[in-house]
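Protocol step 4 of 5: obtain the predicted structure for the target chain.
Materials: sequence only (see below). No template structures provided, no constraints applied. The aim of this step is simply to have a reference model before the mutagenesis design in step 5. Sequence pasted as it appears in the construct record:
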Amino acid sequence: MERGAPRRIDEQTRDWICVIARCDPRFLSRPFSCWSLTKLRDYLIAAGHVTTISVETVRRILHERGISWQTTKTWKASTDPDFTSKMRRILDLYDHPPADGRVLCVDEFGPLNLQARPGRAWRGVGHPVRLRATYRRDQGVRHMIAALDLATGKLRYRIRDRKRSREFLSFLKTLRRRWPDQHLYLILDNFSPHKHPEVRSWCAANQVDLVFLPTYASWLNWIEAEFAAVRYFALNGTDHRTHAEQDTAIGAYIRWRNQHARPKTGFAIRSKIRHTDYPFKAA
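Step 4 output (C-alpha cells):
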C-alpha cells in the first residue's frame, strides 16, 4: 500500500522542468543567462507548465533527476601539430621512468604578491574570519620555481625576484648538483626562458633533456596538482605583510609535505587521454 499524498506533478511535467532548467533562458525569451530557482519557478507558472509550485519542490525535482548547480568551466584545445607524439612521450616517462636517469616536472608558481587571500576554515556558525581588502600592493612580486621529483614525490624549489632565463638556469644547476650522476629528464612548458639558447646549450652539455609539453596542455605537467595544494594549504586564508613572511610560510608547508611524500605513480590512469581513440588534439 502506498503512503503519503499523491504527487500533484506528473512525470511528464517533471521531465519538462528538467529540460527547461538545462536550457539557456534567453532561448525562452528571458533576459538572463542562467536560471535561479525562483526565476525557473516563475517561468514554469507563467508558461502554464504548472498552476502552482514551490521553489523547494523545483529544487527537489532537479535533485531527484540528477541535475545540480554547477560552475561553468573553460577549456582550450591544443593547436600543436605534434600533440600526439609529445603527449605520448610524457606519459611514457611517467609510466616507465628511464633506468639511467630521473624524471622531474618543472614549472614556475606565482606571481607571489602580498594580498589578503580568501580561503576556508572550520569556524563557528555566524562567525566568519574577515580579512582586509588590499587596494594598494606596492611591495612588488616574487616568483617560485620548483621541480617535482617523481621518484620520491618531493618538491625542490627556489623563490626569486625575477623569472628570467638566468634564474631558470641557476635552478637547473642546483638540480644537476643534487643528482650529479644521473641523466635528468625535465618536463616543462614552452615559457621562453626555458628555451633560451644559453639554457639549451648548458642542458646539452650536462645530460639534461628538456621535454616540452604540447602547447596549451599544461594539465599534462604533474607539478600543476602540487601547486594547487601549495596554494590551498600555504596561501589561502592568509594575509602576509612581507615577502619574507610569505616565503617562510611556503617553505614550512613544502618541508612538511616532503616529509610525507611518496613516489609519484599512476598519472591519469582512468582518464580519457589513456584511450586509444582519444581525440589527441582536444585538451
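Step 4 remarks: Residues 83-274 form a domain with the Nucleotidyltransferase; domain 5 fold (CATH 3.30.420.10). The two ends are 53 Å apart (CA to CA).
Proceed to step 5.
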